[in-house]
Amino acid sequence: MEVIHDKESDMYYARERVDNQTIELGMDCEYFNDTRNSSWWNIYITVFNKRKDMFSNMDKHTITGLNPFKTFAKAREMFKEVEKTLIEEELINGYENEITIFCTWVDNRRRNAYYRVLHPLGYDWGRTPRLKRKCIMKTYRKEDFKNERIEM
Length: 152
Fold this sequence. Notes:
This protein has 152 residues and is of the alpha+beta class.
């Protein structure tokens, strides 16, 4: 699986096919603090049948996948790979001292599902810096990776 770094829009993402659908999972930089050299990265996931369906049907239809277990397994694998690439490029090899990866939600059903998936990976409750919205987050610091390779 290839993780793409789109430097123009400052995001990392991967795209994979599962059966007849496409999963896109990524992280985009929502907030950067120059004084602390820290950034906040938002997690997003999209499942769609055709590229043209993705944005036109975003608010109208919920697409969970034809085979939800396959979709979930692939999304979890993609998440770990995108997270690893983001940390290696921005934190270990970059100039940032701290990276926070976070996830927000639209409704409580999604909140509970995201928490069940992210909590075993070390994510916990928090608030975003600007809007003070509730989120599920995890912070990585540069000193935690001194002279180490990242293992996830």
